[in-house]
Amino acid sequence: MRTPSRLRFAHALMAASLFALVCACSSTARAARPLSVDDVIRSATSLEGQTVVVKGYLRFGDDGKNLWASKSAYLAVSGPYVPPNDAAWSRCITLFDIGTWRSGLLARNNEYVLIAGVLHRGPSLDDQINFDSCSDLGISIRSVNSPGK
What we know:
The protein is of the alpha/beta class. It has helices at 4-32, 37-42, 44-47, 71-78, 102-107, and strands at 35-36, 51-61, 64-68, 92-96, 112-121, 137-145. The protein folds into two domains: 1-31; 33-145, CATH 2.40.50.140. It has five helices and six strands. A hairpin with a 2-residue loop joins β2 (51-61) and β3.
């Protein structure tokens, strides 16, 4: 037979477990809400190191691995030469840790996608030109989906 103090302890433990579960679920829901590329860039300092879901226009291939704010943002830099310090380049984040995601990214090239992953800055090398990355801010990929999913 249980004593009243053990019963109170069991109820308190169940309540604490339920509270922890509710908090975990609500933070997962917040993390899963898609952000725009522009939102991520604006909030980069506070989002670095966190898992985010970003919706953007994918440009992926041998010459680029980037997620753009929109197709028009990509087109603004894809035509005639745009200097590296032009504001048009600031509407893009780089994709890191491609790994096993390569074939899925190639299949979704030139489409809007949802990419989940950890946001961080890659090393910025001032004396080198990087032809496949638009920014030192990027996302280490954890999943790639179509926006409808």
